[in-house]
Design goal:
Layout lengths: L7 E10 L2 E5 L5 E5 L20 E9 L5 E4 L5 H6 L11 H27 L8
Parallel strand pairs: 3-5
Antiparallel strand pairs: 1-2, 1-4, 2-3, 4-5
Family: Belongs to the bacterial ribosomal protein bS1 family.
Keywords: Ribonucleoprotein, Ribosomal protein
Organism: Desulforamulus ferrireducens
Length: about 130
């Protein structure tokens, strides 16, 4: 079977790396689905979306002269990839949220320390003489 750019074919995932998944296509050829072409959402860990031996429908997005085949899962299944989002959505707080939490906790610890220290000295404003 001739693999042409733009055609949609079925294949089987044969390997997973941190940058994408290798898919065996009809005719025994292998192509790569880059991690950016797995889903319509951000993919941090490809293992949350694909497993070895999964049957997938992919779109051939490039075939270079050396025989490398670029594939896309999200272009072949535009609605299905959004539904394949990770089972455990992870909320990553922004830097500003982390900083605000740190400052709040730091202020609370400091006020507790001051209260404890003032109690040992006899309170604020006590005379030393």
């Amino acid at each position: 079977m001739s693999l042409e750019q733009g055609s949609i074919v079925e294949g089987v995932v044969t390997g997973i790396t941190n940058f994408g998944a290798f898919v065996e296509l009809p005719g025994g050829q292998t192509g790569l689905v880059h991690i950016s072409e797995v889903a319509a959402v951000y993919v941090k860990d490809i293992n949350e979306f694909l497993k070895v031996n999964d049957k997938v429908k992919v779109k051939i997005i490039s075939v270079d002269p050396k025989g490398k085949i670029g594939l896309s899962l999200k272009q072949a299944n535009p609605t299905a990839t959004a539904a394949r989002a990770p089972r455990k959505p992870r909320f990553e707080p922004s830097f500003e949220d982390k900083l605000a939490k740190f400052i709040k906790e730091s202020d609370e610890r400091l006020s507790d320390l001051k209260r404890h220290t003032d109690a040992k000295r006899g309170g604020r404003g006590s005379s030393k003489y």
